[in-house]
Amino acid sequence: MFSTTKYSSLLTKGLIFILFNFPVFQAFSREGMWIPATLKNHAKDMKADGLQIPVDILYNEKGTGLNNAVVLFGRGCTGEVISPLGLILTNHHCGYGSVQGVSTTEKDYFANGFFAKNRAEEIPIAGLTVTFVRRMENVTDKILSGINDTIRGAERDNIIADRITAIAKEFSERTHLDASIKPYFEGNQYWVAITETYRDIRLVGFPPNGIGSFGGDVENWMWPRHTGDFSMFRIYAGANNKPAEYSSGNQPYHADQYFKINTSGYKEGDFTLVYGFPGTTEEYISSYELKEVYSITDPISIAARTRKLDVWSKHMTLSRDNFLKYTSKRAGVANGWKKWQGEVRGLEVNKAIEKKQAFEKSFQKWAGNLKEYPLAGNILAEMRAEAEAADPLITEDQYNKEAALGIELVAQGAAMEKMIGCFRLNLPDSTLRDTLNKVINSMGWFYKNYDHATDKDVFITLMVLYFTKCAAKLPEYYESAYKAHNMDIIAWAEDVYTNSLLVSADRLKKFASTVHTSDSIKLLNDPAWLLYNSINSVRKQRILPALKEYYTKMHYLNRLYMKAQMMKNKSKIFYPDANLTLRVAYGNVKGLDPDGPAKYSFQTTLGEVIALDDSTSDIFKVPKKLKELYYKKDFGRWGKNGVMPVAFTASNHTSGGNSGSPVLNAKGELIGTNFDRAFEGTMSDYLFDPKRCRNISVDIRYTLFIIEKFGGAGWLIDEMKLVK
Ligand code: ARG
Ligand code: GLU
Fold this sequence. Notes:
Low-confidence stretches: 1-27
Number of helices: 26
Bound molecules: arginine, glutamic acid
Strand content: 5-15%
Mean pLDDT: 93
Distance between the termini: 31 Å
């Protein structure tokens, strides 16, 4: 177990601490998210942990591996193919934005759910794509040959970018597929992924929020958990089963590889594997950078979002219209907000900074006079100096982003910048009007989901925070506007929201309909634009160039640091930080007992859902039909001894992006869909603690039960392959 643990070379004190808590003979809770093409290196460990199939069933060079049943869903989730007809399963929260696009007050799929009765009823989702990774290859030598470690910055980036373009082109010509090359291990390795992206994706099934987001933000990032967080889509293909734009003539994608579904359940300790696309982790950074997360960016974001979410929630309960406008945005904002709270707590109880510092001490001792890699000795000192110089700027900019630009109207100033640009083109009045109208129409999504009364309240609360925390650094216009309103933020807000054109698409259109080329002054004097522009100028001129320089330096130092860490511990197999490429994590079904004897079982049940039912609550209101099924114990083939499982935890190392990932048993069969992590363990993006880090999945039997018994869509189950 320790061979894959990051802090295997901690000082003795730390090591004893860990040994004391986790006996070494316990063969589970593996840290790591592995590149599928390297699984052979783990075959022995995986077998020891319980895997019963050869690893080349998961991935192989012939192209017949189960990687062909896993997709990058949209831009940041995972999905799995669960039938030969291209049916895919992902999370409810991954399908949420797509469903918002096709949901209206009359056809409110959030309230009522949606289950197609047949293929003709499946709803095309414009813009949604899924991407398969057909094959991967290590191309480090091709990319890095002849480039030494100290070549850095733009010089290095340019050489590498050219090579990436050339080599990716070679691959895609050879394979007739797309090829994308990404850095791993901070740019010490490069891999190509040969991919195929399908563009005709249709909605098939989506439970109502009363199931799919049950427990909402209260249960989000928590265990125990009771959410049926799944949704279903189907991939459609054009001629020869190849990707094509939407067309009514397209046929369901024919899948050679898809997951069999095991319906007999699991017990604590059983092997589990998660196959998917984790987005970002930073397991190997220094204590100086971790401190920036822990004491600067996380706390500031939490403070600003607490205010914003309070206001949004209040307005969302006041009208259904507002609810529909803000529900998707709210979920996004709240998701980070809560995760960071868990992260800060986890880093704190784990003494993560101290652990990093202890590691750095031993690193320094080793690196001090290292002949093999003389660069190593200075890395930490340089990082420290850089970070200390950058911290005030990072603090300031985090307030800029989360407080000032966290006000929707202020951020919307970016759109006005485009309009102002139109005036610079010296167009005749009529062409100018047309051009402006096009720009305004492109803001459709924003105004469809915007309520200026809500935003005005956000303005008031966030400006108070901004003025309190950034008093010494306020952009000039903020000071003068504030004074001009007698330091009365409420009066100021009143003025901005009464007079800004940006408050509604109607106002903008009215302005555009009679505009003359000489009217640009009206935009340049718009109060919301002035707020945006002044902060934007400060950021562009003073803050962003300095931060860019800082991140470029840190990127360089981290590349060296990563290389040195790998040199220091040659017998350890390192895993690369997540970078939204396909990975495999393995572990076992496991309850959660962060601070003592098992507090939470590894599984939740429908009985617990019913016990939480609260008809007065938006998020704990169980749909009537689900209650009826429960009281009749009408669980069909899916319950066991009168119990309907809902969700379970396991010890797989996952991250954001793993939402929707298939969770497999020892035979590679689907037992669940990953959707979250437990609060105490969300710091696994920086530090994996086997005691606290748990991924949370919907039990596949609950998914099937909802599809069949609640959604009445048993026809979908007929196309799946169920095994016991
Ligand atoms: N925390 C999960 C993830 O990071 C689920 C988010 C959706 N649920 C919610 N209540 N916002 O995506
Ligand atoms: N819910 C997350 C997502 O959207 C996955 C949970 C996690 O971050 O572990 O990717």
